[in-house]
Amino acid sequence: MARTIRWGILATGGIAKSFTQDLLVDPKTRGNDKVVHAVVAAASSSGVARAEDFLKTVGAPADAKAYGTYQDLANDPDVDIIYVATPHSHHYQDSMLCLEAGKNVLCEKAFTVNAAQTRRLVEKAREKNVFLMEAVWTRYFPISIYVRDLISSGRLGQVQRVFADTSVNCDPERTWPDGKHRMVNPDLAGGSLLDLGIYSLTWVFQTLYTTQPEGRQPPKVLGSIRKYPQTGVDEMTTILLTFPREEGDAHGIASTTLRADSDADGKGTAGPAVRVQGDKGELQVWPPLYRPTKSKLILSDGTIEDKKWPQPGTDGEGLGMFWEADEAALALVEGRKEGQFESLEESIVIMEVMDEVRKQNELRYPDKIETTDYPAWSVMSSLSHFNFHDFADWQMQQTPRHSISTVGSGTEEGAGISFWDPSLSPALSTPRTPPSSQIKPQRSEFCSTLLFNPPIAVSFAKGSSVFKLKYGRVEVRKDAAGNLRSLELSDHDRFDTSLIHNFPNTRLPIPHLERPYIATQPSTFRVSFLEEQTVQTAGTLFQAKPDYTFEKWEDCIRLQEAILSQTVLFVAGIAQAKSKGRGEECISQNLRVLQSRSGRQIILFFANSQRKEAKKYVSVSLDSIDQFDAGKKANKPVVLKLGNSTDVTTALKTLTIQFLDEHDQMVFLRRLYKTDRVREFDHEQDRVVRAQQIYATIDRQPFQWIVVLVAGIGFFLDGYTLFASNIALPMLSYVYWPTETSGRRVTYINIATLAGTLFGQVFFGILADKHGRKRMYGVELVLLIAATLGVVMCSTGVDGSMNVFAWITFWRVLVGIGVGADYPLSAVITAELAPTKHRPRMMASVFFMQPLGQIAGNIVSLIVVAASQSQGDDNLPRTVDVMWRWVIGLGVVPGVLAVAFRFAIPETPRFLLEIEDDPIKAEFDATPLFGGDRDGTNTELESAATWESPPSAASHSFDDVILPAPMMPDSSQWTPMGPPPVTLNSKWQLSREDIIQYFWNEGNWRTLFGTASTWLLLDFSFYGIGLSSPQFLAKTWGNLRLSNDTPHPPWEIDDTGTKSLYQQLMATSVHALVILNVGSFLGMVIMILFASRVNRVTLQKVGFCVLAIIFVILGSIFIALPISGGPGIIAMYIIAQTAFNFGPNATTYIISAEAFPTRFRSSCHGISAGAGKLGSILVQIFSAYYKFGSSSTSHHSSKRYGTIIIVFAVVMLVGAVITHFMIPDMQEKREKGSGWTTVGRNKTLEELALGRMGARSQSIARARRVQR
């Protein structure tokens, strides 16, 4: 018969709730029929009511007892065992209390703060003859039992070493800026070691120590700690443990940090967090280590066993804490005094390890928590626990409380609430004076006056201008029913109202608390009203959305409480309610909780939802809230969980308020293009903050596949069009100029195409900077499609009435313009819509579509030729005429599919921010609008008020003075003195002075010269080699069969009569597919994989050098040996194509779109790309008269060709030199001593736009909105 074990729960926080709910899961469901768990009592240091709420929440029996002190729980005779769930800084005192009372104890990990405390607890347990165990729940999971059994069975052989890591990137400065949170607070034994490191040590010990026989020796310890600068606790710890064994020492490495994640994406992509390596194989365990999800056994005989370990908690099964509870209960049934999977001796050894690590690194906690004195309540009283439900009674409590939040499994009593700022938490060192005592009734029963020193700043937009004023006095006026009617603002010593903020139609005027996080700037305390409000001044009424900005957090709270007639209990820095599709929005929100007049009802709402959607507020009772769960990773939302009985739907219907227009015609496109976020922040009046929010939102997005596909389809068509011509032009030459052997017509057509490309690159690049990227995008694709169809429809007409050469040349020029336009537009749009970390890979992926287009062109030509062979040789010119039209014409198909997406793509956020919508120019001094003359007197009202003289109006800056802003007689006073303000939507205008300042005075011409000249040198060499010529391809293949004495047309590669025209054309396609496309495809695949992992400027430099080496080898072969083709030469060309694409061909395209400011970016990319095409044109003209890639098979011709290739090698070296000296890094510099492939993060486009002057750039200071 199963024995009932009666549990008492000491503390009532989140971990206690999880454990207790697990207790109530029937042990029979997991095969345990020996025990039954019963919760008979719980105690809270906050009082009996809190304990009662806890028991009700977890579903304990109705007769379970609630205690307001831990001592009462320890004295309860009906309790068999007590679970201690307080913070680990409290474990020693609370466990000792229970042991002294003769109670069995299961104490949360880490056992205590130090080994001395653990020893005292063990001694006391043995003295009292009671059970004691550390609740390291991971040891009792089935996977842990499996691992220990596996090691004991010998399948892994002798375990040689173990690696274990438990790390969570908490971003402590941002998450816990005050340093008082338990994770970084030395008074609470903060740091990563005791909280997270215990799991790493658990895995090392249970694989290298637990499984060893009696007489095992403790390990030798070498530890390294990096301390958190603000408080001195450990933020990163790595421990090397050497376990003595007769057969040879074993090593264990345990690591933990608050600065990185063991599992970065939460999906196990990072691989195992535990590796147990034996001499017969290896066992891997995936994170999180406290609740592992899977394991893999890899044996040296080739055996691989993958096992899944589903986490409990999915179907009401609990979290998995019941296994440690079962072990404790079975120990009581069996009469054991400690756990069988972690002895008390082992717990002491682990604590000794942590002590030694702290000692080696001079880390010590305060004496008040390191002491072994008992009792020490006088010391511990300042660490009283805090939990969410205490908020309701907060103002009635006299003892200050601390906010504790959950990380990992957590051991604290408090609920999981994260705060951005210390002032956000009500856990102050002294009780805060109730805000009501600061509001002094003045003129009537329904008017309250608040005085602010320093004054608050009020800003709003009127028309196209932004006004900013400062006031020290605010009168809050309400009607008889308590509804807010207006805010009347004036100066401290003036009682005539300067500005009235009315609320005539607002049902519930809840302001939005804006606290955007900007790493380089201090946080702003601001209350915003996102719906239109009525503002009145000087007898003028207008609609606006006022912002109130405060220097003090207390002042920010005071105004909110006066407006809402509620007590603002707390504001959590990162929070979300469970809702569909709003995770992105929630990352930046503040959750505010208001206490109702009844004291038990609260209103929960998001205070700074940044998007144009209906804002929903929920009013629920405290009893309806189950818990707050902290996000699994730093900076992730806290989740509010409501009880099953809460009718949230009804609550939302009654409390929904429409702040902004919910209808959005671009909903589909916004989902498609997730980095298009500009218009979602239109309500943000602080333009610097607005830009920061937009950039931060862009950078939070994942890889933007839709942007890559839309931009890439155009590039696919570009590659297809340009390189399909290399197959189609010989066909066209056969049809219209069959006897011409010079090939100059084909060369002229190619030059015309390249000239059109050059023009399109430069012209459309400049237009995109002037008129926008979106406006030009799509137009060039339509032009390319139309021009391609124009080429397809070219003909000689009836009896030669049309000049087919002229028409083909004309249409190919237009094709070139369309192709050229796509270079800067696709590059710039991709760069500006890409998150910073994904920008290189996205651009490389777009460029990858070009070799795919080349491959498609070759495959289509093969298919067309193969399909046409059935026509025979009866009317061969007609058949070939159809063939070239199909080859070229089919290229428009993907283009037609892409047109709709091209026109629908949004304008890039950076263009809208930095060119279309210049926020800096929208700010100006508002003093003349509300004040009097510039000398500080008001001639209209003869006011005696004075203020400091503001800067000249031309500076357009705000003045930090209190504006008396007297009443003005009419609206004409709104006209500002001095020059008129620049509007919010002022376009940046290109000027000669800006160009001279940025490029010449600040030296950025060197960067443009570097990007343009390297592209020119690259294309000069590669177009000069003549790889695309059918005869050159056949020559390289070793399959050229032409007489040396007779000139031959461009399409002919065999005049022996053994091959038909079909066979020659198919051979040309095969040759191109292998020699050209294999290398380019492979190179771009590698480029995509490593675009963000290598220094792109260094890659370009090294790529030029590699190409120079390849060219020298090829040239030497052609000069020294009487060969011009064969497998070896083919392999060299494939390697060259690989280096070409995993190198300068891709980097010139990417770097040119990164290196320049938004206002010059497209132009500079177009100029750089145009320089490349200029190089290709020059070498085409040269090759037309000096045929160094001719069909001749003579050794003299090969020697001449080899010499030219060596000249091109020198050109490549020049490109490497220019890259080194002229092009700045696009990534942060690598650390000294690291490899050349080691790089820092990608620089943002805003950082790169600063150019060579950096922060000293005057051009950027004038024209840039914000530097991130």
CATH fold descriptor of the largest domain: Growth Hormone, Chain: A
Q: State the distance separating the first and last CA atoms.
A: 69 Å
Q: What is the level-2 CATH architecture name of the largest domain? A: Up-down Bundle
CATH superfamily of the largest domain: MFS general substrate transporter like domains
Could you tell me the radius of gyration in angstroms?
Answer: 38 Å
Could you give the count of β-strands?
32
Structural class: alpha+beta
- Summed over residues and divided by their number, the pLDDT gives a mean of 74
The main pleated sheet reads as:
10 strands, antiparallel
CATH class call of the largest domain: Mainly Alpha
Unreliable stretches, pLDDT < 50, 5 or more residues? 377-445, 515-521, 570-591, 596-601, 605-618, 630-640, 648-670, 918-988, 1188-1193, 1264-1268
Number of domains: 4
* Fraction of helical residues: 40-55%
The number of helical runs is: 38
Share of β-strand residues: 15-25%
Shape: globular
